[in-house]
Design brief:
304 residues, 5-stranded antiparallel sheet, alpha+beta, 24% helix, 15 strands
């Protein structure tokens, strides 16, 4: 799909169709964004881009340098990202770093299709084969800096193990009896240890390590910390604790509404590829998406 320009049949008043009529009488069929699929032809002999059927298109003019994006109300951040993606494909072609990507197709032509999955992921198909996925990490700049500054745990309501969905809440007020004279009490924002000094120094240190691990686990499950902050030394003890209260750690489980799994012996958020709490990244991604939808002509007035 691409955005065609046609002359509006009525020039003295606005005509509302599926796109919009600009003051110059140019009609844009669609706005680039999530779910958009656009196909273009890159001409290797001229270095220019065209639509597949040769019709006019604002993005083509933008890519070829015939239209300044900052002077266009129809082009947005998704267009700018698509431009960078095709430029990177052109660089790969010219450098012959991945010559196999460009087999097939017509002489002096590369058919490029871009498919926008979300604010961070775009898939590119070259000459009919989907062979490249581009990840845009700019969403990380929209993460709230105060994420790790919260003093209190978020989960305040305890919930016993529920076998129907392999879930449990670890909340303020919960007490874990370790069975050796030690107890761990979940306070508002820290783990209180009862019984220090009853055992030897080695046991005290082990319980302290477990208390920190439980603190990190709650912060992670409350979407306040990254899973990497659950140290590997305390992880086996935490897994034993979870199993003791009924959690099946051999499959996906949920703690404080965060879906978890075990990967390479560490507790991770299930399905999370970005290294920060899922809800935090989703909020940042939403803000970045709003930025991408903003016309390039308005970029001077908003956060870049």
């Amino acid at each position: 799909m691409h955005r065609r320009r046609v002359i509006c049949t009525v020039l003295k008043r606005q005509v509302r169709l599926h796109g919009f009529c600009s003051r110059k009488g140019r009609f844009i069929m669609a706005v680039n964004g999530i779910g958009s699929v656009h196909t273009y032809i890159y001409h290797t002999d001229t270095g220019k881009l065209s639509t597949k059927d040769g019709s006019q298109d604002d993005f083509v003019d933008f890519f070829n340098g015939d239209l300044d994006g900052m002077h266009s109300d129809t082009l947005n951040g998704f267009d700018q990202r698509q431009k960078h993606g095709i430029e990177n494909i052109r660089m790969l072609y010219e450098s012959q770093i991945a010559a196999g990507m460009f087999r097939g197709g017509k002489p002096n032509e590369i058919e490029i299709t871009s498919e926008t999955e979300d604010a961070t992921v775009t898939h590119f198909t070259i000459n009919g084969e989907k062979i490249l996925t581009a990840y845009d990490m700019n969403a990380f700049f929209y993460i709230d800096d105060g994420m790790a500054d919260e003093l209190l745990y978020r989960t305040r309501e305890s919930k016993p193990y529920d076998p129907s969905d392999n879930s449990v809440n670890i909340a303020v007020g919960d007490v874990f009896d370790l069975g050796n004279g030690y107890q761990l009490r979940v306070q508002d924002g820290h783990i209180q240890i009862d019984g220090l000094g009853r055992g030897n120094e080695e046991t005290d240190q082990k319980v302290k390590r477990m208390a920190y691990g439980l603190h990190a686990l709650i912060r992670f499950a409350d979407q306040q910390w990254m899973s990497e902050q659950i140290d590997p030394e305390s992880t086996p003890m935490l897994l034993d604790l979870l199993r003791e209260i009924g959690v099946d750690t051999g499959k996906e489980f949920t703690i404080n509404r965060t879906k978890c799994g075990i990967r390479y012996g560490r507790i991770r958020e299930a399905g999370n590829k970005f290294g920060v709490p899922g809800s935090v990244f989703q909020e940042a991604q939403k803000k970045y998406e709003e930025f991408l939808y903003t016309p390039l002509s308005q970029r001077a007035n908003i956060k870049a």
